[in-house]
């Protein structure tokens, strides 16, 4: 991806209401992956905690993360309002107990 001035990175972490449910995890992962069809997303990565070394600075308490890149703020706003995103929230919000969002732009 080009280093464009106004790139917006949208990183979201989800904690499941039922963290031991493989079915809920699969539903949430599928729901997040469905967002890839939104045209303003330049790149999407859907992940779960990696089995990396345990360190005090590593938080692996979440269940699923989504990392998205947008060309600009307008692209991220289109994503927020998009029917696919709204459908994802309607169909999956019952699965999570907590969501944390980090939005950044180039420094």
Key terms:
107 residues, 4-stranded antiparallel beta sheet, alpha+beta, Alpha-Beta Plaits, 30% helix, 3 helices
Q: How does this model look, in words?
A:
- The structure is a single chain.
- The chain has 107 residues and is α+β, with helices and mostly antiparallel strands.
- It has a domain at 15-49 and 60-66 and 90-101: Alpha-Beta Plaits (2-Layer Sandwich), CATH 3.30.70.100.
- 30% of the residues lie in helices and 31% in strands.
- It contains three helices and four strands; from the N terminus they run E-H-E-E-H-H-E.
- The protein has a four-stranded antiparallel sheet.
- Helix 1 packs antiparallel against helix 3 (83-92).
- It is globular and about 40 Å long.
- The two termini are 16 Å apart.
Summarize the structure.
The chain is α+β, with helices and mostly antiparallel strands. It contains 3 helices and 4 strands; from the N terminus they run βαββααβ.
Fill in the CATH topology of the domain at 15-49 and 60-66 and 90-101: Alpha-Beta Plaits
CATH-level-2 architecture of the domain at 15-49 and 60-66 and 90-101: 2-Layer Sandwich
Cα separation of the termini = 16 Å
> How many E-type strands?
4
Assembly state: single chain
Helix and strand arrangement:
Blueprint: E1 8-16, H1 22-34, E2 41-47, E3 64-70, H2 73-81, H3 83-92, E4 96-105
Antiparallel strand pairs: 1-3, 1-4, 2-3
């Amino acid at each position: 991806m080009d280093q464009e001035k106004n790139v917006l990175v949208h990183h979201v972490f989800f904690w499941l209401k039922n963290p031991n449910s493989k079915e809920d995890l699969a539903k949430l992962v599928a729901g997040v992956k469905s967002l890839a069809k939104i045209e303003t997303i330049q790149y999407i990565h859907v992940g779960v905690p990696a089995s990396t070394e345990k360190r005090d600075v590593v938080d692996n308490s979440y269940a699923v993360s989504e990392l998205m890149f947008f060309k600009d703020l307008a692209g991220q706003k289109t994503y927020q309002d998009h029917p696919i995103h709204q459908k994802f929230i309607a169909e999956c919000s019952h699965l999570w107990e907590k969501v944390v969002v980090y939005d950044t732009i180039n420094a």
